[in-house]
Amino acid sequence: MIFGRRSFTAMIGAAAFAFAQAPGQAAAFEPTKPIDFVIMAGAGGGADQIARFIQSVAEQKDLMPRPLIPNNKGGGSGAEALIALQGASDADHTILVTLNSFFTTPLRQTNLGIDIQTFTPVAMMGVDPFVLWVHKDSGITTFEEWVDAVKAADGEYVMGGTGKGQEDSLVITFMEQAFDLRIKYIPYDGGGAVAKDLAGKQIMASVNNPAEAKGFFAAGDFVPLLSFSDERMAGFPDVPTMKEKGHDFSYYNQRAVVGAPGMSDEAAAYYQSMFETIYNSEEWQGYMTSESLDPLWMDAGAQKEYWNTQVERHKELLAAMGE
Amino acid sequence: MEILGLLGDGMLLAVQPLNLALILVGVTLGLFIGAMPGLGSVNGVAILLPITFLVPPGSAIIFLAAIYYGAMYGGAISSITLGIPGASTAVATTFDGRPLALRGRASLALVTAAIASFIGGSVANILFTAFAPLLAAVALSFGPPEIFALMLLAFATFVGLGGDDIPKTIFSICLGLVLAAVGFDQISGAPRLVFFDITGFLQGINFLVLAIGVYGIGEMLWTIETTRGKVTTSEAKMSVKGIVNDSKEGMKRGWKGTTIGSFLGFFVGILPAAGATPGSLMAYGVAKMVSKNPKEFGQGHPGGVAAPEAANNSASTGSMLPMLTLGIPGSPTTAILLGGMVIWGLTPGPRLFVEQSEFVWGLIGSFYVSNVAALVINLAFIPLFIWMLRMPFTVLAPLIFVLSIVGGYAATKDMHDVWLMVLFGLSAFFLRKFDYPLAPAVLAIVLGPIAEPTLRQSLLLSSGDPSIFFTRPIAGPITVIAIILLFLPLINLVRRRMREGNAAG
Question: Which string of b and e fits A154-172 if b means at least 16 CB within 10 Å?
C-alpha cells in the first residue's frame, strides 16, 4: 500500500462524508430529472386522459420539483409500455399508468417475459366501470330487448371493441356465454374510435367506459342498457347491473400507477405519497365523479394483493374465452 | 346569418388583448417548433399544455391552436431550405420545395408555401364555420370500408401517375407497406418483423425517422454526389418586390395545387385517425395527377409545394372538427388538445357547440386571426431563412447532418431510431441511384397503418367478403375510381399500342 498520508485522510473523509450523506439522501428522495410518465394506451383514450389530468394536478399544485412527461406507448395491447418499464434505464424516474392489460398482456404473451410482481406498486387511483351502449336509432331500450335483437341477428350482430383479450372483449365473451349469444367482434385501436363508430352506426353496440361515451350520451345518441358495476352507478341510476340480471359478474378497468421494476424503496415511497396527495385532491375527486370512476384507494401492500387476485381472475376469463 | 353573428362575437373575443398576444406568441413559437426537424406540432402542444392552466380555457385553446397553426407554416421552412422535413406534415413539401431551393428559387418556394398555407387555412375556416354540424355527420358516415377505399384511392393516385416507372413505383409502395407492418400488430397485439430480436423494432418504425433519413441524410448525400459540393446558392437579396413577384409566379403555377390541397386536406382532416400528414401527401399525388406537366413534379414545380402546404393547414383546421363535435381526435395533436379540454373541465362532443358556445366560437374566430398572423409573421421571417441558404454547402451539409441526427433522436429519444435513420438515409441514396421513386414508400408508411386495420375490420364485418368495398354507398364509388386510376396507365399503354399499330398498318 503506497498511500500518501494526505490522500488517506482524504479518503477517510470522503467515506465519512458519503456515510453521512447516504441515509439523509435516502430518506428524502426527490426526482432529479423529468419523470418518464408512460401511458399504456394511445393518445386520446381513457388512460391518456387520466395521465394528462394527473400531470395537470401535479403541475397546478406544484407537487414535484421535476415535471411528469407523458409518453404514450399503446402498442401491442400495452406490451410496448411493459417492455419499456422493464428495460427502464432509470427506474427511479419511470412510472406507468395502467389498465387491465397490465394483467392480461403478460398472460397472453408469455414470450415477452414480463412478471408484473417485479413492478413497484405506487397507487390505485380508482376503477372505471363498463357499460353496454346501443345507438338510440336501434330502438332498443332494455337489456332484454337487446338480447332478443342479438339472437334474431343470428351471428350478424356487430359490436366493436379494443381487441380480443382486451377488457371489453372479456365482458362481451361473458355475455355470449351467459346468454347464448353470437356476436361479430370488430377490433379498434381505442375506446374513442369504438364510440365514434357506434355514433356513426358502423357497429351496433359497444362496451365502453362512461367517459368515452359521455359526449354522445349527453347528446341523446347513445342509450345505456346495462352496467357491469357491483351496484348501480351514481351517474346512471336507472341503468340496471348485470348482478340484477341474475349473474354474479362485475368488471372494472383499473386506473393505477406503478413504478418500474427495481425502483428504490425511497423513490417508491416518494411517488406513493405524492399520488396519495393527488388522489385526495379536490380535483381528482371531482374528476372521478364527473367521469363516473369508482373511488378505490389502495396502498402499496393492498395493491400487490389485488394484482394476485386480478391475475387469477383474468386467467379464468381468458381461459373461458379460449385464449 | 346567425352563424355570422356568432363568428363576429368569436373574432371579437379572439382579438382581446390577452388572446391576441397569445395568438402572436403561439404562432411564432409554432413557426419555430415546426421548422425544427423532429419537433412538430404534437411536441409543441404537449410541452406547452401545462402552461395553459394559467389562463382561462378559452384563451388556453386559442394559444395551443395558434401553435398548431404556426407549426403547419413552419414545417415547410426546413423542408425547403434544408431538405429535412421539419415535421411529418411537411414531408411532401420537400418533394418540390428542395429542388426549387437547389435551383436558387428558395424564396419562390417559401412564398408559395406561405400563401398556399394561408389560402388552405382560409378555405378550411370558411367550410368549418358554415358546415360544422353537417361535416360531423359526414365524418361519422366513414366506417372502416370507406376509410380503406380512401386509402386505396391515395395509393392509386401515386401508381397511376404517368411518367414514372410503374413497376418501380409499386416496388417502392410495397417496401413502405412492409416497413409499416413492423412492430406490434394493432389488431392481435402480436409482434411482427422484429428483426434480430432488437426490441426497438417492437414499437414500429417511426414515420418521421424514415422521412428525416430519406430526405435529410439521403438528400444530403445525393446533393454532395451530384454537385460535388458546388450548389447554386440562392439569390442573395430579398425585397418586397421580390416577394410580390414570387407570390405572383407561385400562384400562377400553383393555383391548382392550392385549390386541391385546400379542399382535399380539409376533407381528409375531418376524418378521425387521418390528420394532416396523409392529407398533404394525398394532395400532392392528386395535384401531380391533374397537372398538365406531371413530369415537372419532383423537379421543382411550385404546385408541388402549394398542394401539400395548403392541405396541411386545411387539415389542421379540419381535424379540430371531429375533436370538438365528436370528442374524437382527428390527428395526434388534436388528441393532446382533447386531453387539455378534459383537464379544463369541458366535455367535447355533440353538446359542446350548444353548451360552450362562447368557447367554440372564440376558438373558431381565433383560427381566422391566427391565419392572418401566421402569414404575416412567416413572410417577415423569409429573408432570415434565405440568408441561411447563403452559407456554402460545405458548411450546410454538416449542419443538415447534425440537425437530422438530433431530429431523429428527439422524436422518440431512442438511439435505435438514430441508427435506423442513418440506415434509411444510405438506402435512400442507393435506391435513388437506381431510379426508384421514394415518395411512394413514404406515402405507404404513412397510410399503411391506416389501411391495414381498416381492411381487416371491413373483412371481419363482411365475414371475409370483399364485395363490401363495392356495395356500400360511399365506399363503392371511391373503390371504383381507385381501381380505374390504378389501371389507367395500363389502359393508356394499350391505347398507345393500338394507335401505333394503326399508324404502322
Answer: eeebbbbbbbbbbbbbbbb
For A117-139, the DSSP string reads GGSEEEEEEEEEE-EEEEEGGG-
Taking only the tens place, the pLDDT of each residue in B321-332 is 888 888 777 677
Crossing angle (nearest 10°) for helices B57-81 and B302-318: 160
Last residue of a domain, one of A227, A245, A263: A245
Q: Which residue of B has its CA nearest to A101?
A: B189
B347 touches chain A (CB under 8 A): yes
Q: Where are the alpha helices (DSSP H) in B164-275?
A: 166-180, 207-211, 219-227, 240-270
Pairwise CA distance, residues B377 & B181, whole Å = 40
Interface contact A128, partner B, CB < 8 A: no
Shared domain for A159 and A219, answered yes or no, is: yes
In B, minimum Cα distance to A157 occurs at B461
Does the ipTM exceed 0.95?
Answer: no
Residues A309 and A260 in one domain: yes
> Which candidate from A52, A79, A219 shows the least CB-CB separation from B184?
A79
Domain membership of residue A113 (yes or no) is yes
Pairwise CB contact (< 8 Å): A87 & B199: yes
**B interface test, pick of A52, A59, A102, A284 with most B CB neighbours within 10 Å:** A52
Q: Is the CB of B352 less than 8 angstroms away from the CB of A215? A: yes
pTM of the model: 0.85
Cβ(B350)–Cβ(B375) below 8 Å? no
Q: A195 vs B328: CB contact, 8 Å cut-off?
A: yes
Amino acid at residue number B475 = A
The domain that holds A286 is classified in CATH as 3.40.190.150
B413-468 pLDDT, tens digit per residue, is 778 889 999 999 999 999 989 988 888 888 888 888 889 999 999 999 999 999 99
CA dist B75 → A30, B36, B43, B113, B485 (Å): 38, 8, 13, 10, 30
Q: Domain count of chain A? A: 2
Q: Give the domain range for residue B451.
A: 2-504
Domain extent at residue A39: 35-128+253-321
Give chain B's domain count: 1
Residues A143, A230, single domain; the answer is: yes
